[in-house]
């Protein structure tokens, strides 16, 4: 039976579970980019020599004066430039006397060894939010710090000193455990699962809770993959190589794959984990995530279809109609799509394909085709001839756009339309003319409307008809809230009347709706007009309708009083 640690800290970490995944390649646990450059008080021509002298003096101080083992003194002194720089900044610099001055300073001014230690293991000493800092806040010397003893023990096992900070994330304070307990747990994992020291070190650096006696299901997966399927033999026997593979594996689990369920699949996917970088894996996952299917299904699909990593998903040009035909969509189904979504057809880049499929409401269909064995069609598709999918109207307007002085800004807007699913066609040109914001603003507003709950294909169709993306998010929010709350309608009505979002809320939508609502509630108007009829009717026709409804039914004073109250003025003669 493996050793299990039961502390309040570990219980909290266990109940917290796995954090929500955000696709990111960088997992730096120490961010020093915002810190001032160390040793900035020393002229650059003397800086290199001064740093060496300062490090040598600090090593001697920690080893001789503080009785610290030399290897750890060296690790701390050479891996904490910011903390060392702060100490150096306290003494005047002189090239001829710096070495002796710094040695004398250390002799009479004890330094904050804690900051040096924390930075050397990869933690940012300015991040006070780390729970380890709170526990160590009262300690100044490492001789009083049991966490330092634990770090030394782990380094003796083989953990890289500069990466020990990775064990202090996820509220799992591994360094707070006794060094003997940590050594015993480490050896138990090796013996129980048949993993090598390098394997266990890499796993622990990515999942620190493994050392606390948790995550046995993960270790079962690791045994199947690394031992039973020989993944360990395909990975270079170094901590860095193992850490790289484990970071890829964490990506897989963070996307929804269950611990203890995917060991066999991981073992069979050695090529993906060894041959392709984490960045390549992220790019492929992000690509298929745009289809709006479950992330865990995407990961399982990619692991089982490793050849997809060799497909070109960026440079190729496709004809949307030809691509759909290549995947078996023909006849009435294809004709129906052309009639319903004409703005999607034409040419586009294959990098935009996921959004093209979502614009056609075919995201799930396309993914199922790929998952069920048609993924090879992806690589075999080519344009049938040089003019397939070309639109003359688009080509002519593209020449005009490129000839303008503002062509760069214009092309960014046009690229946005293609990116969200518009093909190279006349509808893209018409929509382009209506847009008067930057590409980033357009994308931000498009994403906002999606987050509100508007369907992807519906939103693309709305962009085709109306210039809704020229408005800022707060304005759009107010109009959507009024539509759903005050008018008691839904986003589906925008499929019928996308122009609703283009009208002024305070000057047109609200007052017109309020007067119609009042007339209906008071019984003066028997017809309940649609939102489109209320809002889109011209001012002249709207005034005539109100006057006609009120004439002979509503007392003149009452009508004009109500109209003035909602800022419409006197409409009843």
Automatic annotation (TrEMBL):
Listed Gene3D superfamilies: Transcription termination factor 3, mitochondrial
Protein name: Mitochondrial transcription termination factor family protein
UniProt keyword Transcription regulation, yes or no: yes
InterPro entries: MTERF (IPR003690), MTERF_sf (IPR038538)
UniProt GO BP: DNA-templated transcription termination
Keywords (A to Z) from UniProt: Transcription, Transcription regulation, Transcription termination, Transit peptide
Pfam family, one: mTERF
Organism: Dorcoceras hygrometricum
GO molecular function: nucleic acid binding
Lineage of the species this protein comes from: Eukaryota, Viridiplantae, Streptophyta, Embryophyta, Tracheophyta
């Amino acid at each position: 039976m493996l050793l299990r640690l039961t502390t309040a800290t570990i219980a909290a970490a266990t109940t917290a579970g796995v954090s929500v995944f955000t696709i990111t390649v960088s997992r730096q646990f120490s961010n020093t980019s915002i810190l001032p450059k160390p040793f900035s008080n020393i002229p650059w021509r003397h800086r290199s020599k001064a740093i060496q002298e300062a490090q040598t003096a600090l090593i001697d101080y920690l080893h001789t004066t503080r009785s610290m083992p030399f290897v750890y003194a060296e690790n701390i002194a050479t891996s904490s430039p910011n903390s060392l720089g702060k100490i150096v900044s306290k003494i005047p610099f002189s090239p001829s006397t710096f070495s002796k001055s710094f040695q004398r300073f250390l002799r009479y001014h004890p330094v904050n060894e804690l900051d040096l230690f924390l930075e050397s293991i990869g933690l940012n000493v300015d991040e006070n939010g780390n729970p380890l800092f709170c526990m160590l806040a009262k300690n100044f010397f490492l001789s009083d710090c049991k966490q330092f003893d634990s770090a030394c023990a782990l380094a003796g096992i083989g953990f890289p000193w500069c990466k020990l900070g990775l064990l202090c994330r996820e509220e799992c304070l591994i360094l707070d455990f006794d060094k003997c307990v940590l050594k015993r747990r480490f050896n138990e994992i090796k013996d129980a699962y048949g993993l090598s020291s390098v394997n266990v070190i890499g796993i622990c650096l990515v999942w620190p809770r493994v050392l606390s006696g948790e995550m046995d299901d993960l270790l079962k997966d690791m045994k199947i993959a690394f031992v039973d399927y020989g993944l360990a033999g395909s990975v270079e026997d170094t901590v860095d190589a193992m850490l790289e593979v484990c970071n890829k594996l964490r990506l897989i689990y963070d996307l929804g794959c269950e611990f203890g369920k995917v060991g066999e699949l991981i073992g069979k996917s050695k090529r993906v984990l060894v041959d392709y970088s984490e960045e390549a894996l992220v790019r492929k996952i992000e690509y298929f995530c745009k289809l709006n299917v479950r992330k865990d299904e995407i990961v399982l699909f990619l692991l089982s279809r490793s050849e997809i990593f060799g497909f070109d998903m960026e440079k190729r040009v496709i004809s949307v109609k030809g691509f759909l035909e290549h995947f078996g969509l023909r006849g009435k189904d294809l004709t129906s799509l052309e009639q319903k979504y004409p703005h999607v057809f034409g040419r586009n880049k294959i990098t935009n394909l996921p959004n093209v499929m979502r614009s056609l409401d075919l995201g799930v269909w396309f993914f199922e085709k790929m998952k069920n064995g048609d993924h090879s069609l992806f690589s075999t598709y080519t344009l049938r001839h040089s003019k397939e999918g070309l639109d003359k109207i688009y080509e002519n307007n593209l020449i005009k756009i490129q000839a303008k002085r503002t062509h760069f800004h214009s092309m960014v807007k046009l690229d946005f339309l293609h990116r969200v699913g518009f093909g190279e066609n006349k509808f893209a040109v018409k929509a382009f003319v209506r847009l008067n914001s930057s590409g980033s603003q357009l994308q931000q507003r498009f994403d906002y409307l999606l987050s509100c709950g508007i369907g992807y294909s519906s939103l693309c169709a709305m962009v085709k008809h109306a210039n809704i993306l020229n408005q800022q998010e707060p304005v759009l929010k107010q109009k959507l809230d009024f539509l759903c709350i005050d008018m008691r309608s839904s986003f589906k009505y925008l499929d019928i009347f996308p122009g609703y979002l283009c009208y002024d809320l305070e000057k047109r939508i609200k007052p017109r709706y309020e007067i119609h609502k009042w007339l209906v509630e008071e019984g003066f108007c028997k017809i309940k007009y649609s939102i489109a009829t209320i809002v889109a009717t011209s001012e002249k026709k709207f005034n005539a309708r109100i006057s006609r409804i009120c004439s002979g039914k509503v007392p003149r004073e009452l009508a004009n009083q109500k109209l003035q109250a909602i800022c419409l003025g006197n409409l009843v003669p």
